[in-house]
Amino acid sequence: MLDSSAVLAFLNRENGAEYVGRLIPDSSINAVNVAEVLARSVQLGHTNESARESFAMLSLEIIDFDEPHAVRAAELRSLTRHLGLSLGDRSCLASAMLHNATAVTADRQWKGLSCCPVDIIR
Fold first, then answer.
1. What are 69-92's pLDDT values in tens digits?
2. Among 13, 32, 19, CA closest to 105
3. Top-level CATH class of 4-120?
4. How far, in Å, are 6, 12, 60, 85, 116 from residue 23 at the CA level?
5. What is the dihedral of CA 59, 25, 15, 29, to 10 degrees?
6. Measured torsion, CA atoms of residues 44, 23, 89, 116, in degrees rounded to the nearest 10
7. Geometric angle at alpha carbon 28, from 75 and 16, rounded to 5°
8. How many whole angstroms separate alpha carbon 75 and alpha carbon 52?
9. Of the residues 8, 21, 37, 97, which has the fewest C-beta atoms closer than 10 A?
């Protein structure tokens, strides 16, 4: 399960991009993290259309953020509060937990979380 930080690292050719590129064909992302990727891409100077096009070329499976995901993300708040994890971060972790997947991120503060396997790309 790709976090927005991992996808953005790939799209922006940042450190860890090659690693993420190898994961993309077999990965998914949730809808909350898609919104983060698109918003950040626009913030970095892309148009809404070019951001959507760049993201679409990845052909990632997009997981709906439904009620079970929302409940799990809310439950993760107390576990992750000391790390300052955002709703987007917790949504990725929740999706990984519900889909028995590894959460892939560029955010080092996720190190040591025990809620699901975490892969930090750099």
1. 999 999 999 999 999 999 999 999
2. 19
3. alpha beta
4. 10, 16, 10, 23, 18
5. 60
6. -170
7. 95
8. 31
9. 21
Q: Find tokens 């499976």 and name the residue.
A: 61
What residues pair up with 122 in beta bridges, in sequence order? none
pTM above 0.85, yes or no: yes
Averaged over 40-44, what is the pLDDT? Answer: 97
Alpha-helix runs per DSSP H in 2-119: 4-11, 17-23, 31-43, 48-56, 67-80, 87-98
Q: Domain-by-domain residue ranges, the chain?
A: 4-120
End-to-end Cα distance, the chain: 16
- On the 0-12 / 13-18 / 19+ scale of CB atoms within 10 A, 39 is middle
Are 37 and 55 in contact by the 8 Å Cβ rule? The answer is yes
